[in-house]
Amino acid sequence: GVNASGLHTIVMCRVTLGRTLYTEEVTPDPAACEELCQSKAFHSVVGDRRWSRGTFREFVVFDESQVSASYVIQYRRIFD
């Protein structure tokens, strides 16, 4: 978000992915992905949107113990 001074804030986290379920599907079944992770067959999901849609990769975990906040970063956007 943006505070009153115009600074944006993000939290950089360390995430342990463990055994990943990798998918290049354009529309994967989110319930099936979550079920596989909850059953401990996998620890996380990597949705490779860069391959399937030309955008970015998504990393999803369902267990909050796999995530640890490392840094709080504040920055100001500079536009030319």
Polypeptide structure, described:
- With about 80 residues, this protein is of the alpha+beta class.
- The protein has two helices and five strands; from the N terminus they run ββαβαββ.
- The protein has helices spanning about 30-40, 50; strands at about 10-15, 20-25, 45-50, 55-60, 65-75.
- The longest helix has 9 residues, at about 30-40.
Give a quick summary of the entry.
The protein has a three-stranded mixed sheet with strand order 2-3-4. A two-stranded antiparallel sheet has the order 1-5.
- Overall spatial form: extended
Largest sheet: 3 strands, mixed
Radius of gyration in whole Å, from Cα? 16 Å
- Side by side, the strands of the main sheet go 2-3-4
Alpha-beta classification: alpha+beta
Please bin the fraction of helical residues: 10-25%
Q: Which whole number gives the mean pLDDT? A: 90
Oligomeric form = single chain
Please report the number of helical segments.
Answer: 2
Order of helix and strand elements from N to C terminus: EEHEHEE
Distance, first to last CA:
21 Å
In the predicted model, the low-confidence regions spanning at least 5 consecutive residues are: none
Proportion of residues in β-strands:
35-45%
What's the count of strands? 5
Please name the defining characteristics of this protein.
16% helix, 3-stranded mixed sheet, alpha+beta, 2 helices
Secondary structure elements and pairings:
Blueprint: E1 8-15, E2 20-23, H1 30-38, E3 44-48, H2 49-52, E4 57-61, E5 67-75
Parallel strand pairs: 2-3
Antiparallel strand pairs: 1-5, 3-4
